[in-house]
Structure prediction request, 225 residues.
Amino acid sequence: MSQQFHHIPALLKAEEMTAIEKLISESSFRDGKDTATMTAREVKNNFQLDTSSSGYIQIQSIISGAIQSSPYFQIASQPKTVHPFLISKYTVGKYYGWHVDSPIMGIPAIRTDMAMTIFLSDPATYEGGELVIQTTAGPVAMKPSKGDAVLYPCQFLHYVNEVKSGERVAAITWIQSNIQSSEQRQLLFELNQVHALLNQKEKHAPETNLLLQVYSNLFRMWADV
Prediction:
């Protein structure tokens, strides 16, 4: 995916989705505006899982385990700190207008280098609800499979289309990366992918080791730890 966007298929496995769906069905939601900041409050029109709900901590634990065990997520984001997930729900008529995420979030505060949406609803069960990101090449709309994630830099304006039928549920978080620059982070991701391909062909070949050395030295040069 271009513009340093990453589509992560099946970040959540079927059994994890089943457990999350059960917990969500037993939990209560509140007005999503309660957690919006800056001008986002004016355009946010959804529901959000009450963080005091009994299932909230269990959902956090399931998703946190999934991202920790996902090589794709770890390599693409190089996470330093991950903000607690928010679980949002869009019923018919709900939407989230154009907005940009806050640059600093949480207590203690983190810098929001990347955002991630994990889609928790089957796209065949709802109409609308696409995540739309404004890129330099124009808007990109995404509505992947249940359990998939979209990871992207926070500097882009984005919105969630109005849901026309059904119900859209998603988990959202923000990441402070060990590599602050999105361009540097993407270069490291691509170098890692090339190294993995070379490593499959011939482990410890001179060119494979040299690429690993370049990757490691660039990471050391750019790391924000």
The chain has a mean pLDDT of 94. The chain has two domains: 6-177, 182-222. The chain is about 30% helix and 30% strand.
